[in-house]
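Lab notes, practical 5.
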Amino acid sequence: MVARWVLAGLAVLVIAWTAVLLRDLEVGRDAVDARDAGGLESARFLDPSVYWDQIRAGVLLINGDPDAAAAQAEAVIRSEPDNIAAWSLLRVATRRSDPRRSVQATRALKRLNPLTAP
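Output from the prediction step:
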């Protein structure tokens, strides 16, 4: 009987977590459509991944703030050093402001994916 209650409790937790992540997805999509980098912070609610952080870096870059985009990409890279999307964003974001860092990002991309030349 206890096992059933534990299983039921776990099922409720999984359903609640799924509902939160679906809400995050909807909030995130709306923020991306509006190019609202601040709104993407709400999409991170209880989401342990760096997905929304890298999306935020892309939105900042599109909005014409390459320094903030680079800082956000750097944060993602510190968390996930092999994140190709973050390195790509960093390469583009630092192309004019920090060419040396952009070259480092290009090297990292070649290391992570040697069959494609960025």
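Observations recorded by the TA: DSSP finds six helices and no strands in the chain. The chain has one domain: 2-112.
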